[in-house]
Amino acid sequence: MKIGIIGAGNIGATLARRLSAQKHEIKLANSKSPDTLTDLARDVGATAVTKEDAVANVEVIIVAIPFASYPDLADLFRTVPEKVIVVDTSNYYPFRDGAIAEVEGGKPESVWVSEQIDRSVVKAWNAVLAATLAERGKHSAETDRIAIPVAGEDSEAKSVVMGLVEATGFDAVDSGDLLSSWRQQPGTPAYCTELSAEQLRVALDAADQARAAGNRETLIKQFMEAGTTISHDDMVAWNRAGTA
Description:
single chain, alpha/beta, Rossmann fold, eight-stranded mixed sheet, 8 strands, 13% strand
């Protein structure tokens, strides 16, 4: 498939690498210019382009930018045909994004994202740590693959994205529509807990919206206090314990 990725941080670059390895044609853009991406794009098997080029003549657009930056893309998406699938990988963190009243009031993150760019999105790859995405994907024939939830309104678009999730080395679990996508947001048992598909379905069902924001803030405080001393496995374990 022809895929444009906006955002070249840990998530965007890793997705570019993994999808390129599966023979997808990847265009990669950031908030600066293609010149700043030349070496990275070559390394991950993508073509460095502008944001405008990243959304042109593609079948899927994956957006891997900070949550609060979505309003900046509103004009860009006005030029994108409706048939193009848009994937939201972001998460809301008030300490980084600033308090957003609608999300604080309970609006699911990806519903808010859809409103900012006036496009329905598929929510995927948000509920996984960058290191998990980079290092813990497995071939489809292997057992004990980690599962990733995928939410969206359009069943066909969601099916395409689930196939791409599988291509990156993870089992894809249909987590429902965007109104239900709060179940895979920070502070829930499905978020960054490295579960199997069966375990993930149980975690999605067990999510408590009233507790999620509090869980998120408690965990962020713990992670920031721990600093660089916390290991990847500890982060997963803390997420599991803090959302149980």
